[in-house]
Amino acid sequence: MSFVSRLISLAVLFTPVALAQAPAPSSVRLPFQLKLIGPNIWAAIDDAKGDAGANAGFVIGDNGLVVIDTFENEAAAKALLAEIRKLTPLPVKFVVNTHYHLDHVAGNRVFAEAGAVIVAQRSVRTWINTENLKFFGDKIKPEEKTLVENLLKPEVTYDSELNLFLGSRQVVVTFFEGHTGGDSVVSIPDASVVFCGDLFWRKTLPNLIDATTSAWISSLSDLEAITTQAVPTEEASRAAVFVPGHGDVGTTSDVRDFQKYLQYLHDVTKPLVDENKSDDDLVNAVLPELTKTYGTWDFFKDFSRSDITDTAAELRGSKRVPRRDKK
Question: In angstroms, rounded to a whole number, what is the distance separating the alpha carbons of residues 69 and 99?
Answer without folding.
Answer: 9
